[in-house]
Amino acid sequence: xxxxxxxFKTDNEAEDFVETADLSEYDFSGMVPMRFxxxxxxxxxxxxxxxxxxxxxxxxxxxxxxxxQRFMRLAIERAIETK
Length: 83
What we know:
Layout: E1 3-4, H1 11-20, E2 26-27, H2 51-64, H3 68-80
Parallel strand pairs: 1-2
Helix pairs in contact: 2-3
């Protein structure tokens, strides 16, 4: 049986743990992926949408646990990615 992943109070505690622990011994099934946005958002736009579309965006953003404007930005980023 795998170990429960510990809780950390500071980034330093987490960094120290990761440097020394064998992570294969821990259960990551309860972990939630995180995405950090570090780039500055310096341009604002105004966008008119049908109310039904905006409500669908808000519902889906809430379902995945992020603000709706970030949800829209991620959808735009995915739409223009080249692979």
